[in-house]
Structures are given as structure tokens and as C-alpha cells.
TrEMBL record:
Keywords: Aminotransferase, Cytoplasm, Glutamine amidotransferase, Repeat, Transferase. It comes from Phreatobacter oligotrophus. It is an enzyme of class 2 (transferase). The lineage of its organism: Bacteria, Pseudomonadati, Pseudomonadota, Alphaproteobacteria, Hyphomicrobiales. Catalyzes the first step in hexosamine metabolism, converting fructose-6P into glucosamine-6P using glutamine as a nitrogen source. Residues 39-180, 213-355 form the SIS domain. The chain holds residues 244 to 608 of 608 of the full protein. Its EC number is 2.6.1.16. Homodimer. This is Glutamine--fructose-6-phosphate aminotransferase [isomerizing].
């Protein structure tokens, strides 16, 4: 049932504040400002040699975001791979490491094969899955569910933000256990996570503005998305969503890679969507935006009020997000990039919930 929404995807986008709240409540002891994981871990974070992550598509991009968090909070090395590459690469694994697989359906063939490879190679396998009865959940040692509820739209939306919520909680727990974040830091991070649903609600208020921006985007042949730090995986997620829904060619790039190739594409017809909260790397992204502007690129900036003030370039549109703590920015900024893809697809008249050539669950490789 789509409720009063035109598509399942839109309904699922709007469900996000609620399901992210439910998911964070499952992982956080809100009264005491601590992470409280719902399952016992069969390993000691402090003794963990390494974390590996494997997943596909949007789930992979949740994993890539988590790499930044695990490295920052827990100072642990993280390898992240696309599951179809990981499974055949015969990568050596230090026994006793942690393998995290991320999957909405829990049935993705390549992710399942990666899980089995990791198990054979002495890893503790932890699954972040949305379907608790799935094969991936059954075969993993530890299951950390996302409580997104059934996701019907082929494009993953609420499962993604719930994956981010679970992975951020895990990274905070790891950081605390390894002694790299204090009790006060943990408290601040937990409180930030608890605010995410409220900020997502605020982000949803930009829908009409985004729908008007989508009119212009629907005329583009190619769209470039740029981001730095944790905004880089969100840029890639934006590009993936736009491709799969509107069939417009899109690429997500690390902003710093611009000069190493993609800048050649930029002319007056090229929309460039820049995901840039006013964070530690904002200044660096501004200089990349200037490079785009100097070549006539059409900048659509997704930022907060401070970012909008300091942008120093002319944009065709600015989508102003609430000012959010850095850790939850990827969760909150997922909302506008989903709405951009959704409205561009509606503008193009494509089948939003069932895009051509795609299946909800990829059970063959
Ligand atoms: O069920 P999974 O999370 O394992 O699926 C992984 C990908 O197939 C999936 O995220 C796909 O990229 C989505 N269509 C993205 O919107």
C-alpha cells in the first residue's frame, strides 16, 4: 500500500525518519548516551586485526561510508570491496578479523559468496541485513538488523539510511571499546544520532524546491556528483539513484579527483551536483566548485546555511540542509539526493518503482 504517495519509493523516502528512529533506538541506550548492541560479539574489538566489508550497489556505498567512521572513531584499518570483486580476488585474510556484509535483501549472490569466503578464511562474519530470515542472516555469525521494514521500490532508500545508522552505531561502539573515544565523545555521538530523524524531517521539506530543480536536470545528458570525505559515497549514491531511476548517465566522483579526468567533461550543459556540508573538508570542495564554475558548469550545491554563505561561486540552485553534526550528515544528505533522483525520474516519465532491466534482489551473479 502506497498510502497517499504516488510511488512506493516516495513513501519509503518519507518513512525514513521513523525507521531510522526505530533502528537507532535498537542500537543506542539513549537515556545513558551509550551504544548498546543487540547481540553479544564473539570477539574483542581491541584485539581485532582488521575489518573487511563486502556488499553490492547501494549497500556497498553504506559500507564505504562506514570505512570513514571505523577509521576515524576506532582507528582500525578497513578494507572495503564490491562483493563481485572480493569473491574472486582470493584476498589473504588475517584469521580473527571481522568481515561485515551489508545487504537489504540478504540474498545477493555475490555478497553471500563473499560471506562464505570470509568464513572459510577464519573471519567473524557480521551481517547488516534488512530481512532477518534471509540466507545471509542465517549464515552469518552475528546479525545486526536494519529495522527499515519491507522495501518495495527497486531503488534502495530507507534500507540505506538504516544501514548507515547501524554501521555508525557499530563504529562508535568499536571506538569506545578500543579506547579512541571517551565516554563524553560517545555521549555526544549518540545524541547526534538521536537527532538524525528530526533533521531528516527537515530535509524532506525541501521536496518542492527539489522538484523544481529536477525539471532542469531531466534535460541533461550527463550529471556529475562530487563529494569529499563521507560525502563522497553519498555523491556516488546520488549518481547510482539517478542512473537507475531516470536513465540519465551520472557519475559520482571524489571532489579531489576532478582534475584527474572528469573536469574535461564540464561545459555549460553539464549539471554538477556538489554534496558539501560545512565540515572539515568544505574549503577543499569549494576550490573544486570554483574549477567547475570557471568552465561554465551548472552547479547544484547541497549544503547547510554556513556552506551556502561561504560557497563563493554562483550556483544554479542551492539546497539548504539543516546544520547537522558531521557524523550524521551522510544520513541526512541521503534525503535530498534520493528526492533529486525521484523527481527527475517522474519528470522523465520512467517507471520509478520498477526501473527497466533491474531486479529488487540479485540472486544470480
Ligand atoms: O539486497 P542488497 O542490499 O544486497 O542489494 C544490493 C544492490 O543490488 C542494491 O543496493 C541495488 O544497488 C539497488 N537497486 C540500489 O538502489
Amino acid at each position: 500500500d502506497k498510502g497517499n504517495h504516488k510511488h512506493f519509493m516516495l513513501k519509503e523516502i518519507y518513512e525514513q525518519p521513523e525507521v531510522v528512529a526505530r533502528t537507532t533506538a535498537h542500537y543506542l541506550d539513549m537515556a545513558n548516551g551509550k551504544v548498546r548492541l543487540p547481540a553479544e560479539l564473539p570477539f574483542d574489538w581491541a584485539a581485532l586485526p582488521r575489518i573487511s566489508i563486502a556488499a553490492c550497489g547501494t549497500a556497498y556505498l553504506a559500507g564505504l561510508t562506514a570505512k570513514y567512521w571505523f577509521e576515524r572513531f576506532a582507528r582500525i584499518q578497513v578494507d572495503i570491496d564490491i562483493a563481485s570483486e572480493f569473491r574472486y580476488r582470493e584476498t589473504p585474510m588475517v584469521p580473527g578479523g571481522l568481515m561485515i556484509v551489508v545487504s537489504q535483501s540478504g540474498e545477493t549472490a555475490d555478497t553471500l559468496a563473499s560471506l562464505r569466503y570470509a568464513k572459510e578464511n577464519g573471519q567473524h562474519v557480521l551481517a547488516v541485513v534488512n530481512v532477518p530470515t534471509s540466507t545471509i542472516a542465517r549464515e552469518s555469525h552475528i546479525v545486526m538488523p536494519t529495522l527499515a521494514g519491507p522495501e518495495i521500490g527497486v531503488a534502495s532508500t530507507k534500507a540505506f539510511t538504516c544501514q548507515l545508522a547501524v554501521l555508525a552505531s557499530l563504529a562508535i561502539a568499536a571506538g569506545k571499546a578500543r579506547g579512541f573515544i571517551s565516554g563524553a565523545d560517545e555521549d555526544a555521538l549518540v545524541r547526534a544520532m538521536m537527532e538524525a530523524p528530526r533533521y531528516m524531517n527537515e530535509a524532506l521539506k525541501q521536496e518542492d524546491h527539489i522538484a523544481s530543480i529536477a525539471k532542469g536536470l531531466s534535460k541533461a545528458r550527463d550529471v556529475l556528483y562530487l563529494g569529499r570525505g563521507t560525502s563522497y559515497p553519498i555523491a556516488m549514491e546520488g549518481a547510482l539513484k539517478l542512473k537507475e531511476l531516470s536513465y540519465i548517465h551520472a557519475e559520482g566522483y571524489a571532489a579531489g579527483e576532478l582534475k584527474h579526468g572528469p573536469i574535461a567533461l564540464i561545459d555549460e550543459t553539464m549539471p554538477v551536483i556538489v554534496i558539501a556540508p560545512f565540515d572539515k573538508v568544505y574549503e577543499k570542495t569549494v576550490s573544486n566548485m570554483q574549477e567547475v564554475a570557471a568552465r561554465g558548469g551548472q552547479i547544484i550545491l547541497v549544503t547547510d546555511e554556513k556552506g551556502a554563505e561561504h560557497a563563493e561561486v554562483e550556483t544554479v540552485a542551492t539546497i539548504v540542509m539543516p546544520d547537522v553534526p558531521a557524523t550524521i550528515a551522510p544520513i541526512v544528505y541521503s534525503v535530498p539526493i534520493q528526492l533529486i533522483a525521484y523527481h527527475t525520474a517522474v519528470e522523465m516519465g520512467t517507471d520509478v518503482d520498477q526501473p527497466r532491466n533491474l531486479a529488487k534482489s540479485v540472486t544470480v551473479e
